[in-house]
Structures are given as structure tokens and as C-alpha cells.
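Inputs:
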Amino acid sequence: MTETRGQWSGRLGFILAASGSAIGLGNLWKFPYITHENNGGAFVLVYIAAIAVVGVPIMIAEVLVGRHTQLSPVGALKALGKDRPGGTVWQSLGFLGVLAGFTILSYYSVVAGWTIHYTWMALSGDLAELAVNPDALGAYFGGEFLANGAQQTMYHVLFMGLTTGAVYFGVKGGIERVAKILMPLLGMILVVLVIYSTTTSGFGEAMRFIFNPDFSTLTTGSVLEALGHAFFTLSLGMGAMLTYGSYMGRDISIPRAALQISFLDTLIALMACVIMFSIINTSGVEVSKSSTILFTTIPTVLVKLPGAGLLIALFYVLIGFAALTSTISLLEVVSSYAIDELRWSRHRATLTMGGVITLFGVLNALSLGGNTSLSSFNLIGRQSTQGLFGTMDYLASNWYLPVGGFLVALFVGWVLGPKMTRQELETGHGEFRGYGLWRFLIRFAAPLAVGAIIVSVILGKEYQ
Ligand code: TRP
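Outputs:
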């Protein structure tokens, strides 16, 4: 039985679903802490440049391939590669995407699950009690919480359940519907929190930190990290945007949509920084382990405010929402492979793939507490200090996504001809005046910049 292929209801449906994919833990959790680690201002500018010069062109390239073929990554690259240089080799790029989706989802969902626990603790009052003492909360998070395998597993399974449920109901009935409800809510909660931040005494210092660049503190590592993060935050390099593009109508402008999605993603990352740094500066707490500020430092500050329980709950609900529309896109890439290539029904594909990823993710959930037998289990055969969880993140952000993005840029820039790409980009857009610029960026700037990440990883200059 073949089902008809899903489609977005229109432009707004696509924009919201794709922004939902892009906006996630990358914006609310990772961007603020890497901005903090890389000393703010100059890093933020480099990041914005990376989005514009590398991110937007690659997003346009991915969506173009998806909409042209109306297929998910493996099928799309097989179809387009067939009669072109490189032939069927290109479809392995599609498989790399499926593998990346699997890998990222298996640990992303664990972190996303934390938001459920924190929402719950905020409402029950437990968090307020713990957060009175910053050391107590830090100790709780790093010790009791991460080491509680049963609890980690439960929240991960719960989050995967929500994700699988949404993807199960299809492009319009599930993915788009969830995005249409959650994205406006997310926007509203963020605006409330930004307005609140402007009233705090730390706001001015936060703005200076984020928007006043000091290039003397910028290192090569910072530049590479900004580039790598541009990929992650825009959901590029593994065919998520390609897959979403394959459900897009021919009446929508690809370049315009890509610009809007990238703009929204950047805006929200910056808003997250404003909120986070205002809160932190106001509190004057020492941000030592910056990668966990979201779960250790932030509550200790919020807890002092009137109506703290609700405010904190709102805050973690927000992060959970953002994460959910992202995990949905990760599962959709893996599921759509089974739907398009293995001819499975959507229901069978989502339940099977969702189930397998959930099981694999349990290993990640259990590896957090320093369980030695699991943390010595290492996929790439090199000792990772953070166990399985860290290895998954390392593989995805340092290898899969950059290699995937590099190859997409080469394929679209050098293998697909200018006639075909121009025609696709002008469909639903009219004459595309930026075509020359886009083609230059996708042929030269993007491969060079992404190539630099790959070279630095090969040379062992890890930047994460
Ligand atoms: N972009 C999301 C974030 O910033 C994560 C994400 C969702 C993603 N889908 C992806 C990352 C595909 C890479 C590829 O949180």
C-alpha cells in the first residue's frame, strides 16, 4: 500500500516546521554557553557571519535538492546523482544523514528529557528548595540526577514518545500541527523573559558582553566553533532541511524561506543570550561549569523572584517545546528514509525507527552517571572523557555534520548544473537576483570554510 506523500499546508507551515527544527537546544542551551566560553561580542559577530556566508547558502542548497526531487535524502541523492559525475556514490551522503539523525537524536532526547524533570520539580517546589543553595543544586544535578539511570531513562523514553507521536501523524497532521502550536507559544514565552531581563540590573552588562566585540580575545578555535555551531543550529549537514524541503510546494520561494528561517534562528539564539546573561550578571554567581548553567545556575537566580515556581516551570517548558520540534525533524529524516526507500508505511516507519533510537538512547542515558562499563564502550575507538554520550556528540558535531555539509555544497555547487539550480530557485520566487552570489558562496566559500573545520578535526585540533 502506498500512501500519498505529505505536504505542508503552505508557506507558513513550512517556515514554522523548519524554524522548529532549527530552533532548539542549540539556541537555548549550547549557544549561550559557547558565547560565554568564547568571550561574547566578537564570537557573536563571527557566528552571524558564519550563518550568512555558510549557513544560508547550504540551507538553500538542501531545500533545493529536496523540493526538486520530492524525496528524502537517500532517494533524492540517488535520483540526482545517477546520470552525473560521481554517480551512485552520492547516495551514501544520504545514508550519512540518516546515521547522523539517529546519532544526534539518541543523545539530544536525553537532554530534552531533563526539561520535563525540571518543569516537574519547579511545579512541585523541590527545585525551589534545592536552588536556594547554588552548591546544593550543582551537586544534585551532577551527582544524584545524572547518576539516576532509571530516571534518566524514563524521561528520555517519555520525550522519544512525544517525538514519535508527532511524527506518526504525518507531515501536516503531526509535524506541522505541533510546530504551529508550539512555535508561537515559544515566541511569546521568550518575549516575556526578554522583557523581564530588561528590568534586571545585569541587563546592561549582558548587552555589552553580547554586542560589544573585542577581537583581541578571538582565537582560531572560536572561529571554527562558530562555524560548526552554525551547522548544528540551522539543522544542516544531515538532510533535515532537505527532507522538509521535499514536502514544500512549488509556489514557495526557497531563498526567501531560508533567509527567514535563519533570521528567526539567530534572533532566538541572541534572545536566549540576553535572558541568560542578564540573569547571571544580576545574580553575580560564578559560572564555572558553563555547559550546565541552564540546569544549575539559572534556577538559583530565578528562584529569588516573585512567583518563581511558575516562572521556572515556564522557562523549562519553553526549552522542552523548542527541543521537541527539533527532535521531530531528526526522527523525520530517519523515518522518511524507511518510507521512501523501504516502502514502509509511515506508522510502521515511525514506530520502528522511534523505538530503535529510543533503545539506543537508553545507553546514552545510562552513560551519564559514569557507569564504567558503558563509558568505556566507544564507537570510534578513542578514549572520550565523557563516555558514550560525549562520543555521540563529538561524532555528530565534528564529523557527520561538517562532512555532510561539505559534500552537499560540492554536490549542489559543482555537480548540479547552473541551469537546474537556477530554475529550482526561481520556481515560486521569480527572477532570483542573488543567484550569482549564492552560487559563488556554495561553490567556494562554503566548502572552504567547512573544509577548514574538517581539516582541524583531522589534525586533532579539537575545538570542543
Ligand atoms: N537545530 C537544532 C538545535 O539547534 C538541532 C537539530 C535538529 C539538528 N535537527 C537537526 C541539528 C539536524 C543538526 C541536524 O537544537
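Remarks. Residues 21-22, 24-27, 104, 232-233, 235, 238, 240, 326, 329-330, 401 surround tryptophan (CB under 6 Å). Confidence is low (pLDDT under 50) at residues 371-385.
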